[in-house]
Amino acid sequence: MDKHDIAKILDEIALLLEIQGDNPFKIRAYERAARSIENLDADIHEVIKKGSLRDIPGIGEKIAEKIETLVKTGKLPYYIDLKASIPKGVLEFLKIPGLGAKKAKILYDKLGLKSIEELKKAAQKNLIADLPGFGEKSQKKILDSLDKLLSYNKRHLWWDAESIAEPILEGLKKLKEVDRVEVAGSFRRKLETVGDLDFLVATKKPKAVMDFFTTQKWVSEVLNKGEAKSSIRLKNGMQADLRVIPDKSYPFAELYFTGSKEHNIKLRERALSMGYHLNEYSLDPLKIKPKAEKDVYQALKLSYIPPELREDMGEIEAAAVGKLPKLIEEKDILGAFHCHTTYSDGHNTLEEMVKRADELNWAYIGIADHSKSSFQANGMQLDRLEEQLAAIKKLNLSGKYKAHIFAGLECDIMTNGKLDFADSVLKELDYVIVSIHRSFTLSQKDQTKRLIKAIENPYTTMVAHPTGRLLLKREPYAIDIDKVIDACIANNKIMELNGNPMRLDLDWRYWHKASQKGLKCAINPDAHSVHDLEYVRAGVNIARKGWLEKKHVVNSLPLDQIKKLLNQKGL
DNA sequence: GCCGTTTTCGGCCCGACTGTTTTCAGTCG
To answer: The domain that contains A163 carries what CATH number?
Structure first.
């Protein structure tokens, strides 16, 4: 039972209480406790041992007791009883747009509906329209959305969401009635996946903007439409909301609609404690006329908090004492190390990749093709590796390109933790990235041991995509990430932040603490074509979410310094 | 259920839209 399991149970208790119609503030208390546990830095078992559970914000007497029972016995009678009182299927009702806890309870109480299937049959038999609080329209809406539930609830990679948002944003920008516009929400916070798109517009003519937004070619359905707020369903099932606001309120609205919800609640509480009242229109009774968000933060005696950090992970506390990090920026990146070519499974040649690095004004590019065991990725046998090494040397000597080429390798880690090539081969290279591409199902203990053994190899330089996750597709393999981080630090090895939009691995939630302990980061594109080098941008987004500064990121170092760093290998 | 340098009781973030009502509850973000 780890902190994620506990947080999940606390969240589920909150949902169950909601359906039971319990005190809303009690429900929020459980939700808050869940977030606190989820964001906990320390090991939950240690915290319990020290008896400091109640020092965690949002954890009081009752919830502390429940967590202790849960951790010590693996189960919680209170939770078991609660679950027994409401069928699991009723929780599924909450996923249907327009159905919340109250209505879910009515469906269960009055008609005894226990699953999505039963709900569908009841709607088809016209049994729902007569229920209190329901009507013809809500019955039809339930039926309509049931078929599309899967696409509605789908999240999208941030990278994909960007290309969906772009034409809508451009369309709004061109509208003469629009004074200011941007995409807020989790998209602006650069969260790795995005559920829906939140557009924010400043205008004096809301109606014209709303009419435009709800009638364009990207609309598949108008969910609701008002003067201040409209929602549409896009063709791919994604929801897009538009909020319209007078220009004088824009900074407040920007803050509010960027979130996160937890960040906003903390801000409002802070405002209240200072005698103010904060909403998306103003900060009363303060008569400030902010031009930008930073003016609002300033009024709350906080330094400006970049959107990426607004996750209630300590940023408000840090901003209150002027201790926010100076986040890494894309322009700080001077090169990258995880790039493939046609020597293995890349689409572009070595020279094409280097040329592109030149165009990006990079000072260096590291080529790391797959090793022989990755036959699925056309991994290189020794002769091909030697051939590539010679080609890189030649190209460097030719002086044809400004970018220096580092000769590396993405070396497979065998199931026993040994590397795919012997040390005598590895030592000829400028650097070695080690990674796991098979045997994902080892136990956590064995997988951790395997990776740490590879980290301890003297010729290992950095660890690629350490959890192997593919966002929205494949869960991370079981691994004790804290131990892996500690092993990297102890052996002076670099951890990759893989910028492939589907990986973004190591996850941002680990980086703040890990970097403070001394973990070095390389933001890599894991590029398989010249276009993929752009993934560095996605990597920088996530690095910023992880509080990383330039000093933590090795590929912000100029050429002479990165050479020096790589030469430390084998020490 | 949590919390407190105005409080150990009485607060707890707050506004827009929809559909079902006949003045508002429920949902959503």
So the answer is: 3.30.460.10
Give domain status of residue A571, yes or no.
no
**Does residue A146 sit in the same domain as residue A191?**
no
Report the distance separating Cα A260 and Cα A31, nearest Å: 14
E strands within A227-379? Answer: 229-234, 239-245, 277-278, 283-284, 335-339, 364-367
Mean pLDDT of residues grouped by 10 in chain A (571 residues)?
Answer: 88 89 87 85 85 88 92 92 88 86 89 88 88 88 80 84 94 94 95 93 92 90 89 88 92 91 86 83 77 90 94 90 95 97 93 96 96 86 94 95 96 94 94 92 91 95 94 86 96 96 94 95 96 97 97 97 83 40
Which nucleotide has its C1' atom closest to residue A265's CA?
B13
Residue A325 in domain? no
Contact A254, A182 (CB under 8 A): yes
Q: Does the CB of A94 fall within 7 Å of any strand B atom?
A: yes
Do A202 and A334 lie in one domain? The reply is no
Following DSSP, what letter does each residue of A260-275 receive, concatenated?
A: -HHHHHHHHHHHHHTT
Contact flag, residue A317 CB and nucleic strand B, below 7 A? no
pLDDT of residue A20: 86
> Are A91 and A160 in a shared domain?
no
If asked whether residues A178 and A278 sit together in one domain, one would say no
State which residues between 247 and 266 of chain A bring their CB within 7 Å of strand B: 257, 261, 264-265
